[in-house]
Design brief:
Elements (H helix, E strand, L loop, with lengths): L2 H11 L6 H22 L5 H19 L2 H8 L10 H18 L8 H20 L7 H13 L9 H10 L7 E2 L5 E2 L11 H18 L4 H11 L9 H8 L3 H19 L7
Antiparallel strand pairs: 1-2
Helix pairs in contact: 2-3, 4-5, 4-6, 5-6, 10-11, 10-12, 11-12
Length: 276
Amino acid sequence: MSDSVGQYLNEIGLVPLLTALEERELAQIIEKGVEASARIENGERTAELKRAARAAATAKDRFIRANLRLVVSVARRYPLPPGMELLDLVQEGNIGLEHAVDKFDWRKGFKFSTYATFWIRQAIGRALDQKASLVRLPGDRSASLRAALRQVSGNGDELDAEHATLHRLTTPTSLDRTIGEDDSNQLIDLIPDSLPGPEQIVMDRIDEQMITDLLSVLDARARFAVEARFGLADGQRRSYREVGDELGVTAEAARRLVKRAVTTVKEHAGEPIDAL
């Protein structure tokens, strides 16, 4: 437990819990304060309304402070994702607690902690969906994954196949992470290098020189037509219509030009070239 978490727990532990009677009394004061605030916004400015609004604010503050330990209890049930700490979840849960205080109906006789737990879990779950990962899952999938993780105490290796896949998608990992039985390798060692090696560079240069030598037998117009048709210059293959537009001829004329040029290259190459 970090020092900040311990200090927070010590502070909220000094606030006494509420009895069921006190919860009802505070809820009634808050309800009257809401009504008073609405009347004040409508233009009424009596001292009685102002006192009711101030009393409601004080009651709400006491109601929330007395239940902060409930938020910590709920937040501790969630596996902490990378980049988030317990106090981050607690902060989000406190927002849900405040919403529960605003919505609590004392007339129904429910215990406040039971009612508030729903809103606290909603707030924490929403925060995990939006902030815990770079990959956003649909709400139902995210809720299902959180429930599955709680059942296995946050151990992703014990998840079923579907939830394990979702867990991998939403859990970043370091390329420096050691792998293998003896931890002698790193994950980055398994990622293939996309850059060409020395052998590939040499072979590419040989191919380029070979193509240049083969095309050297063509005049400039025919050579341009072949290079444009097969993307030899920039890697982008063009249609006969596009080649013809560049040369100022029809697509059919461009096709005949390319065909004659390829035939000429084949004759000078001394071996078949499957270009068409």
